[in-house]
Amino acid sequence: MARNRYSILSLVRNALSHHENWQAAWRSPEPRPSYDVVIVGGGGHGLAAAYYLAKEHGIRNVAVLEKGWIGGGNTGRNTTIVRSNYLWDEAAQLYEKSMKLWEGLSRELNYNVMFSQRGVYNLAHSLQDVRDVRRRVSANRLNGIDSEWVPVGELQRQIPYLNCSREARYPVLGASLQRRAGTARHDAVAWGYARAADARGVDIIQNCEVTGIRREGGRVLGVETTRGLIRAAKVGVVAAGHCGVLAAMAGLRLPVQSHPLQALVSEPLKPILDTVVMSNAVHGYLSQSDKGELVIGAGIDSYLGYGQRGSFHVIEGTLQAIKELFPIFSRVRMLRQWGGIVDVCPDACPIISKTPLQGLYFNCGWGTGGFKATPGSGWVFAHTLARDEPHELNAAFSLERFVTGHLIDEHGAAAVAH
Amino acid sequence: MLQIPCPWCGPRDETEFSYGGEAHILRPPDPAAVSDQEWADYLYLRDNPKGRCREQWCHSHGCRRWFNVERDTVSYRISAVYRQGDEPPGGGNDAA
Fold it and tell me: What is the pTM of this model?
């Protein structure tokens, strides 16, 4: 079961055999008839939860069920941005937990997740924007999260190609900057967690779709899958856009709506943008990948949708914003465009919670911003599954908040429109 | 982009419309009489179907009237358009 450690020596050794003898990064076992914990959804969040269940809580009799393949869902479809500059205390602390885990992740997993703390700028385009952004900068600093206000003159020096002209339709007046924020290689995060979880005994079962949730007398017994019934004392659902479908299998309704969210990349360019720029007001965000592509995120389509595609006018609007911010990119050609299905909550915050059904847990509602939270989400969900109660970091992110009214309203507050 | 047949103006581009979410959700007639859970159900809990859904659209940049649409959330094909207050075609909507 022990996997070979990756190191410079293993690289040399495998180079000598023409890279034909690399060991598979994780096993592909047949599902066993029963597990202590079954996690539904083999994205980054689900794999991280399995890894921390094994590592932090000693629960190794765990399966992760993935209907497709590892890295094929939203984990491989996002724009790879990692930041923790959220406004409200509960959200800020959850995302900052994640940020701290990111900072040691490649070493911990023995897998290069290419975490690059290149900074994230959130632009302000109006006086009200300036007030909101400066308020958020102050709130972040009170929560111990690095955040600073960059006036427009300094901003122009730091990002030379950004259009800071007063003649712009929505002139840039300044920005917040989180220097510890940045990007990571998105699918490597899933692969790294999969490999590390597998090394601790977790079964990762791909091409295994959950078709029903078996329950009896108010508690869960297991899941029905395309590969047969798998019994489990606890079932954790981490299925992003499909969490509503799984909730319906358990007779539950969630305050979550699934929408297509689009992203696109350009043809590769030589290095030109060494940071991440986001704008809430004109709605676009942009970074440059190590391959040289501009990575661009658009908004969600307004309507409910499960087709992994979106309407053209949404990316047209985003590219207009990008072109306004960076006129130098006006003739760059776009290479690929795709959509993922995101699960949006009314307050743009996740649900990491027990449910009325004993033994059934949901980690969903991350909406458009889940990638950055991958390590922390898995860490608190593992705690919730293992102890049957939330960690203090996710106690506020319960299903009950929609009844009590204690919403954590990050819509519009969280540095970018959701 | 969707092409949505407005019952008054005919087929128009999606950009002329705004989305109103799930149809057939009724505001409790006496909000003070319902429990917190029932109020939360009304405010926040929604079906999130993969398949047939019934939803509200408003022709904001046209006749500015609301109507209901029955649409598949995977193929995005619109199977029926009907006025608000009407029974959905084929029935089967518990919330109506």
Answer: 0.95
Residues B56-84 pLDDT 10s: 999 999 999 999 999 999 999 999 999 99
| DSSP state for residue B44 in the 8-state scheme | T
Side by side, the strands of the sheet bearing B52-58 are B18-22, B52-58, B66-72, B78-82
B83 touches chain A (CB under 8 A): no
Q: Following CA atoms A414, B1, B3, B6 in sequence, which dihedral angle do they give, to the nearest 10 degrees?
A: 20
Alpha-carbon span A236 to A63, nearest angstrom: 10
**Which 8-state DSSP code applies to residue A366?**
B
**Which amino acid is present at B73?**
T
Q: Which residue of B has its CA nearest to A244?
A: B48
Q: With contact defined as beta carbons under 8 Å apart, do B6 and B61 qualify?
A: no
Q: pLDDT (tens digit, 9 = 90+) per residue, A231-267?
A: 999 999 999 999 999 999 999 999 999 999 999 999 9
CA angle (A184 as vertex; A179, A188 as ends), nearest 5: 160
Q: Where are the alpha helices (DSSP H) in A309-372?
A: 312-325
B93 pLDDT more than 60: no
Quick: pLDDT tens for A28-49: 999 999 999 999 999 999 999 9
- Predicted confidence band at B89 (pLDDT cuts at 50, 70, 90)? confident
Substitution target in B48, B50, B68, B71 with the highest count of A β-carbons within 10 Å is B48
Nearest to B48 among A244, A313, A404 (CB): A244
CB contact under 8 A, B73 and A305: yes
**Which amino acid belongs to residue A27?**
R
**Beta-bridge mates of residue A338:** A263
pLDDT tens for each residue of A305-350: 999 888 999 999 999 999 999 999 999 999 999 999 999 999 999 9
Stated as kind and residue range, the H or E segment containing A211 is strand A210-216
Statement: residue A298 has pLDDT above 50: yes
Q: Best interface-test mutation with B: which of A256, A306, A407 has the largest number of B CBs within 10 A?
A: A306
Interface touch A258/B48, C-beta < 8 Å: yes
Q: Which residues are CB-contacts of A168 (< 8 A; sequence separation ≥ 6)?
A: A324
- Is-contact A352 A380, C-beta < 8 A? yes
- Residue A357 has which token pair? 């059904």
User: How much is the CA Rg of chain A, to the nearest whole Å?
Assistant: 21
User: Considering Cα of A256, then A258, then A259, then A265, what sign does the dihedral take?
Assistant: positive
Separation CA A336–CA A263 (nearest Å): 9
> Does residue B25 belong to the interface with chain A, where contact is any CB pair within 8 Å?
no
